[in-house]
Amino acid sequence: MALSHLALLWLAAFAGGFTQGLAGFGSTLVALPLLALVLDLKVAVPVCTTLAVMLNLVMIVRLLGHVRRGLLLLLIASSLPAMPFGAYILRVVSGDWLKLVLAAAILVFVIMQGRPGAQASTAGRGRGWGVLAGLVAGGMGGAIGINGPPIVAWMSRLGLPRDALRATLVSYFFLAGCGVVASQAGAGLVTGAVLGRTGLALPALAAGIFAGMKLCGRVSEAAFRRIILAILAFNAVTLLAQGLAGLLGR
C-alpha cells in the first residue's frame, strides 16, 4: 500500500473515531468519503462498517452505565419492521433521491433547532416521535445504508446528559452495525484485503476515539448541543452532495 494511501486510511480512521468519540455518531459519513478515495467501494464500505462496529464497542464499554435501555429498546423495536420496507422502496425509488429527501429533512431540523429558544420547546420529544424516528431510520438503513440522522435528531430533542445520549446512540449503532457486518460477511465482502486494511487503521481509530472522548469532557452542555447540530448539518451536506452527484452522473 502506497504511503499516501496509508496516510488517507489513517486520516479516515482518525476522523471517524474522533467524530464518534465526541458526539456518538457520524463516523461512517465522515470516514467513507475519504476511504473511497484510495479503496474500491467493495473494500471501503466493509472496512468502514467494521471499524464503526469496533469503535462503538469501545465506547459501549466506556459508557455502559449511561445507556438508557428503554429508549434503546424503543428504537430497535421500531427500526426492525421498516428495514425490509426500505429495501423494497429502493427497488422503486432511486437511492439518490432518497438521500436528497433525507438531507433536506435534516437541514430543516438543524435550522429549526438553531433558533433561539428551540431547545426549551417540548415539541417532538414524545415516544411517538421516537417510534417515527426508528421507522424512518430502519427504512433508510434498508434502502441506502444510512440510519443515524433520524435517531440523532429525535434523541437530541430529549435533553439527555451527553454521556447518556452518546451511550444510547453507540449501543443502537453497534447492534445495527453487527447486522450489517454479518450480512456483508455472508455476501463474501469481508475479504483478506478488508481485514488487512481494517487492521492497519486500528491505531489511528484508537487515537481518534481517545481524542474525541477527551474533548467531549471539556466542552459545556450548550457547546455539545451545537456540536451535534454541526455534525448533523455536515452529514446532510454530505448526503446532498452524494445524491446530486449520483443524479447528475447518470
From TrEMBL:
Domain of life: Bacteria
Coiled-coil ranges per UniProt: none
Signal sequence, start to end: none
Transmembrane segments: 43-64, 71-91, 97-114, 126-144, 164-182, 194-215, 227-248
UniProt keyword Transmembrane, yes or no: yes
Gene Ontology CC terms, in alphabetical order: plasma membrane
UniProt keyword annotations, A-Z: Cell membrane, Membrane, Transmembrane, Transmembrane helix, Transport
Membrane topology recorded in Swiss-Prot or TrEMBL: Multi-pass membrane protein
Cellular localization per UniProt: Cell membrane
A Pfam family it matches: TauE
Location, primary (coarse class): membrane
Family statement: Belongs to the 4-toluene sulfonate uptake permease (TSUP) (TC 2.A.102) family.
Name of protein: Probable membrane transporter protein
